[in-house]
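Severity: low
Component: inverse-folding endpoint
Summary: output formatting inconsistent between runs
Steps to reproduce: submit the following structure tokens with default settings.
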């Protein structure tokens, strides 16, 4: 790859997303994007005995759907890049363990899907891989148990809180494919402005999103008006407003050019979801359904996808530490 400016890399082998699939839970399937998802599970256990096993089932389901679409077998895949929110990425490890494909676990919090794609693009650009599978998931119930309280506790949510998406997205990347091409990548920097409220992750992540997006515009000498749409991962309603303000201070106006996956996946009138969706599966499922389907139909031809992550843990929250944010960006185009 060729480095452009300080943070951006231009791909040279036209790594393309050739096949993709998504699977979500019932709540997500009933939302505004329900028609775009490939599979909707009506049972939150998904035929398993625990929430964590259900999340592994989500990952395995989308991975198999991508293989079925591509008519490839496991032996045809060079690498799997997979991640989730659980300790030691166990949903991914247990979901992918029977596929017999070289596995690289990923963790970037809710930015994991784009981090995985950047990793796959790097492997393809190096010449070391010709087929990479990227899979990312989250599950509302497993995330609640790990990061907040067991569901039985019945805790109340603040208006700035977000609802972890039960969902997964998976895609296959190949060099010079016939699908949508990843033209630029921007690995993000950690940005920490001292936000400590774990129920306001949008505020914690928005500065990182602004930093990455502004860096891309500076490096490429482009503006928001050069793209059909700028999608962010899961800033929700609160973080999206903050992002617009931060980018405006940098001289970039995004009104009418920005959508957030966390604000798109649920009905904003649903008070239960508060500020919108979050979780690794948020950006992954929206990217591998609405965004890529819209590009297939040529309704979108040149988009930015910047997934955001809050790099906290139950341990750091318990120690009253701040919440560092991260945002990774890719530019997808129809060639």
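Observed output (run 2 of 3):
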């Amino acid at each position: 790859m060729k480095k452009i400016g300080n943070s951006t890399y231009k791909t040279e082998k036209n790594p393309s997303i050739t096949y993709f699939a998504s699977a979500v839970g019932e709540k997500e399937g009933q939302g505004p994007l329900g028609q775009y998802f490939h599979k909707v599970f009506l049972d939150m256990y998904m035929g398993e005995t625990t929430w964590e096993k259900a999340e592994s089932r989500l990952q395995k389901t989308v991975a198999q759907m991508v293989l079925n679409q591509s008519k490839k077998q496991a032996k045809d895949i060079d690498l799997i890049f997979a991640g989730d929110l659980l300790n030691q990425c166990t949903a991914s490890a247990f979901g992918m363990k029977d596929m017999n494909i070289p596995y690289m676990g990923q963790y970037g919090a809710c930015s994991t899907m784009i981090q995985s794609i950047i990793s796959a693009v790097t492997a393809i650009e190096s010449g070391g891989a010709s087929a990479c599978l990227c899979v990312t998931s989250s599950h509302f119930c497993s995330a609640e148990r790990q990061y907040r309280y067991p569901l039985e506790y019945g805790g109340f949510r603040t208006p700035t809180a977000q609802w972890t998406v039960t969902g997964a997205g998976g895609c296959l990347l190949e060099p010079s494919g016939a699908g949508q091409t990843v033209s630029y990548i921007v690995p993000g920097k950690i940005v920490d402005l001292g936000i400590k409220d774990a129920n306001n992750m949008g505020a914690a992540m928005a500065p990182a999103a602004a930093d990455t997006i502004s860096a891309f515009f500076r490096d490429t000498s482009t503006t928001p008006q050069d793209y059909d749409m700028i999608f962010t991962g899961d800033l929700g309603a609160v973080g999206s407003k903050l992002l617009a303000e931060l980018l405006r201070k940098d001289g970039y106006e995004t009104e009418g050019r920005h959508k957030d996956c966390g604000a798109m996946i649920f009905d904003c009138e649903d008070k239960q979801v508060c500020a919108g969706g979050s979780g690794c599966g948020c950006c992954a499922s929206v990217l591998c359904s609405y965004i890529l389907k819209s590009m297939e139909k040529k309704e979108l031809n040149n988009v930015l996808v910047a997934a955001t992550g809050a790099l906290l843990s139950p341990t750091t929250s318990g120690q009253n530490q701040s919440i560092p944010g991260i945002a990774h960006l890719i530019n997808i185009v129809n060639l």
